Input
Amino acid sequence: MNATLRATESLEMSSKALFFAGSDDETDPLPADNAAPETSASRPTTVPEKRLFLVDSDEEDASHSLEHAPGRFRLPDAQANHDSSDIELPCLEELPRTSSVSSISSELSNTRLSPNASSSRPPPLKKQRLASPKNFRHPPSMEDAYIGCIVCNAWSTAKGKGYISPGDEVLIERDALEDRTGRVKGRNKEAGNKGKKKQLTLKAMMNPQPSNFAKRKIDAVIRLTNKAGFEFGRLPQDLSVWISKLLDLDMIAFKGSTMIDCPTVLHSGADVVVSLSVYLRASAFKPPSTSGIETSKLSGLGQETEEETVLRGRKAALLTLFDALNLRPRHGAQTYRDRNVSNSTSESRSERSSGKKKVKTEIVGDGEEVEVEDGEELSDDDLQLIYRKAQRNDRALAEMDPPPTFTLTLRGYQKQALMWMHSMESSEKSARDATCMHPLWTEYAFPAEPRDGVIDLTADEKPFYFNPYSGELSLEFPKSELKLKGGILADVGMGKTIMLSALIHANKDPEPVRPEDEGKKARQLKLGSTFRPVLNDQRLQLKFGSSATLVVAPTSLLSQWSEELLRSSVPGTIRVTVWHGQNRLDLDALHDYDGDQKSIPVVITSYGVLASEHAKFQKSNGQSSIFQIEWLRVILDEAHHCKSRTSKTARAVYALQARRRWAVTGTPIVNKLEDLYSLLKFLNFIPWSSHSFFRSFITVPFLARDPKAIEIVQVILESVLLRREKSMRDSNGNRIVELPAKEVLIEKLQFTPAERIIYDSIYDTAKRNFDQLNAKGLVGKNYTHVLAMLMRLRRAVLHPDLVVNPDNGSQDPSSKPSAIDLDMLISDISKDSNGEGGSKTAFAENVLANLANASEVECPICLDVAESPLIIPQCMHQCCRDCIVAHLTACSERGEEGRCPTCSQGPVKEIELMEVVRSKGQPGEEQSPFVSTNKELAGVSLRRNDFRSSAKLDALLQNLRRLQDQDPYFRAIVFSQFTSFLSLISAALDRERLTWYRFDGSMDMKKRNAAITEFKQNERKPKILLISLKAGGVGLNLTTANHVFMMDCWWNTATEHQAIDRVHRLGQEKTVYVKHFIVEDTIEGRILQIQKRKTAIIKEAFRGTQQSGKGDPESIENLKVIFGDD
Amino acid sequence: MALPKRIIKETERLVADPAPGISAAPHEDNLRYFDVTIEGPDGSPFQNGVFRLELFLPEEYPMAPPKVRFLTKIYHPNIDKLGRICLDILKDKWSPALQIRTVLLSIQALLSAPNPDDPLATDVAKHYKENEKDAQRVSREWTEKYASK
Output
């Protein structure tokens, strides 16, 4: 439907063009013959000696003025500036969005007709230099330039003598397009038959391009004529195929070609040797019409638009030409030919590709999503490789001191970052000494042109630039130029927040307002606050956008940002607003222009808010000030949150208006190259912000295992990314960050027998299930089911309660265990004493009374100080938990009922035992619900031993107890993926009377902040923070703690490291101790086993987000490892 | 196999603070194996006798009782010809709260108070029941004969 529309459009256009062309005929006496050599003595006199083209010659009569322009040499300075971007980086957004086909054909017809429509049309077969259609459309910016000479064989078509002799000039001719088309159509064209011609042209226009090209392919004839215009020979097929293409596209011209050798008497088919001097036409340096790339997005990978075919042909022909001319690039991108041996980058890359044959090329034509998921994952090595180039020059970065309003002291590398960011924003100069060539371009030198047979070797070599990917040519140095102000700050654990805060202080002033803005600004100032009620977008935009910074961060980090910003600023120099929650104020009102220009406005918001605001904004007439303000600067913290370009978050982020943009993330590429795209899109880093462009030059080549993809990414990153790692060293060889040591221990645990039974039964069921599915080959189909089983197993490793159905007798683990009132107990004992002998009662009373004295009890079984003693309710004798449990178990194994080991009273049941909970900190400060109400016994309480522990839980508690012995005020972080396990841990910590805080995804912002703040508060007691990996694995700064406990093992080691880096980061002063708990002979061991296989795919598979619900062979293989017998 | 902390502790205490009339020392090559001597309690037919015993702590100790046997011949209704002892705490009344010391003290007490109603050596028990004085005489003779210092 669109196509038809366009077709009619172009029809109209073409008829206009035709008419126009016709009227132009009379006044256009010269078919553009600009192929004349400028120095050759034998140059035909009819041809203007030199052509000079002016800027903007789009007007019809420009060509005339050009031809008679007196100035001979006018270098296109103004125009270069104006056009350079077009040449270097075809900016797709700016190109017309018309269909590729119609736009091309209409353009072609528009221009093509003008010379040919002249009434004095040559007869069909008369040779005529092909006038360049583009000549008229695109103003050439230079003369034709000599690029070399080809000596080749040709064959003669003439018979006889005297047509040509060695040394004579040879003209190279190509039939005009119409002639050829006409001939194909039936060779019945009459001279001046306008109607006919029109018909043909129309037809050609409406025809899809390929057929056109197919015809051209048929006719690749290139004729050699003598000065008299008589055809005496043709170029052989292998040359004419591509030369004709270049001629048709008006890329090259031949001037001053000479006959080198030929028989004096020609006969048909005789070999002749000609030397062809090749000149690049000025028009060749114009960008080819690339509007087709945009459309190629829709057609996906499989098809190529017609236009792409043209471009590909052009590109291939140019490459062939350079090859034939023996032109070699001086700098820049490796050409296709030698890239495979280019450098280690490509080698290792291709090695990897060949070794790894898991190709996921199920590209369905119906959507992008599918393709996105196809993106091959990058290994860590790849990522290292990618970043290496960007990091190469970082040591030498200059430093910059923060302004006095910034209170903290920056370290050297932070000053470097400040310098870098500052220069990226001001974009005057690059801090990195980088005049990088655009990654896609290669530099060639124009060879010296022989003048009168002499080559002037003293002449400067003039360079020109070629893009072997798009086939573009340019005279301008294709700088890998930054149009953006901003970049990607990808330092790892280096205090990014602080660096950005310094930047906010350092670059607080908006750049000088452009003249056109000046007027608006003045008006806005006048309007002032008088008209505040009548807000309109315009005013909003101008109101404070020019000085405000917007920070977008994950919800969990909002308050951290706010705190850090305030902490690093001289009071009063910064106004921080956290824009989050239900009651979001009008931003405009918040940052009213009240003359308080000294303080820097900063707004902090979350991705969630942004996305919902965006949805609101997109609704018709929706208002959302955040999108209407033009911010001075937008900072995306943890920018990988919007790595999926189709997500709502990402779209919202793209919709922000900002002058300076920063993406801050430690993982700009999470696991796919496409991840980077979203950041570039946000940064508006032309041309990479165009998805089709990114896709064509990076994603697709990468999938095709073209090492170029990585190289391009490297160069992109070199220009926009700053990434330093903790391990990097400065120019003096010192580590840039001196972090305290990190000790990682893996503690291997054994299940208790009961746990083992539970686990094994679950495992057996799962294994049987899996084996059945596997035997039937249905694992792939039931992948989700298998994953669910795995999940259950993983929970079983942590704690049996996580898999036992709470209804089956065991109590809900999260329910708060009830405390036992000591007073009640004592009075109960006293009552009993009426009946029985007093001594025992006295003992019991004594025991209870002594509980408060925190006296240590020797366990009668292990003869050691009772650890977490349990009291036997009947006699008040105490034992260690482990000892009494073992004793009771031994009793039951003998078939006896349990009795007190000390006095043999019975029966004693495990769950009736009472636990003594003694707070080790200051009694009275405790806010735990277990504190007995009895004041005398404050700090001691009893509780039924109804809590089931597990190997992991016990190990954790044991570690914490030990820790408390060493450091009574320790701070520890406990990570788990399972919030239900965190609940169990918190219950256990309650028993231990340890203060804990919790941070997980279910908590709202306020609670999370409170948890973190309280945890960080300086108090003289131990504190433990329980964090769910998903909610708190990134961003948080928890350097107050120096002990980390990893309760479960993760598939993704990167996530694990990042979690640890919450603690092991800048600001940490103590050694960090990390402990992983692994239960032996469980799925966890197998997980490690699989991790060792280094199959990246497992990460996806077990992340639980497998959307398709199907497993690929690799994942299934891994499942087999898990359920395998060994 | 590492020696449990409890056994080490018990051993230390036995050496440092021996119970009166009782000595117990572990073998150097097997710390679970003890050479024990118990002096016959005063006022009993075993007075002035020194009885040698062996004591072995099984793997399950203290969840299982120690194994104790008289090596010195003794004429006692609850101790048989092989030196095996009939004592409830060494069997079903064992509790992990009991220790080597308590076991040995119990054995010493058993020497003072034979219990012919729960015999192990039935003929000795019968003798004690029918003619306690004569039985005690035999016990004294045996003590002199086998257990003199």
Remarks:
- The longest strand of chain A covers residues 145-156.
- The first helix of chain A runs from residue 2 to 25.
